Amino acid sequence: MENQQITKTSDNSKKTSLQILKDSPHQFLTGLNPQKIEDCIKSDSPCMAVIKTELGEPTLKAMLTVLIIETVEFFNLGKTMGQTQVAQTIELIIEDFGFMKMEDFKLCFKNAKRGLYGNGQLYDRIDGQIILGWLNSHKYERMEASEMASIKKHTEFKKEDKHELTDEQRK
User: pLDDT tens digits, residue range 122-150?
Assistant: First the structure.
């Protein structure tokens, strides 16, 4: 599937994204390529809570495992994560970040690879605490971007509203 199919914004796009996810989670993940926070916010892909409800926790955990392992393998570190650490980290992610979409994780981990979180210093280790720190940084960036988008939308609405009131007063 093309990336466009996953991120289109029609009324049926959430169902489409969920169906693609159900049919081929790997294809869904590889089709995601968010470049900025706004891409994550505007995406019609389901959040983790919906994935867990609709497709089950094992599917959600498998997807997060793939993303975490890809990220961990990117770094050339002496102290890496074992299976138990990955599983515990995923449990915490599911508990704390259920509102996030897979695009959020792809972008967050891409930014971590670029060294945008924590001054890019891993000091020869990666673990759940570091990953959760990245996700918290991403969460705050996302919240700020959402707030700015909401303020912008509100301002535009107020401008339109004033214009309509002016037209009504003229009649």
Answer: 788 899 999 999 999 999 999 999 899 88
Kindly tell me the sign of the dihedral angle through the C-alpha atoms of 140, 142, 143, 148: positive
The 10 Å Cβ neighbour count of residue 110 is: 15
Q: Residue 3 is which amino acid?
A: N
DSSP assignment letter at 46: P
Query: CA of 112: how far to CAs of 93, 101, 131, 142, in Å?
Result: 16, 17, 9, 15
Residue 111 and residue 142 in contact, taking contact as beta carbons nearer than 8 Å: no
β-partners of residue 47 are: 101
Rounded Cα distance between 134 and 118, Å, is: 8
CB 87 within 8 A of CB 128: no
Q: How distant, in Å, are the alpha carbons of 9, 17, 22, 60, 141 from that of 31? A: 16, 11, 14, 16, 23
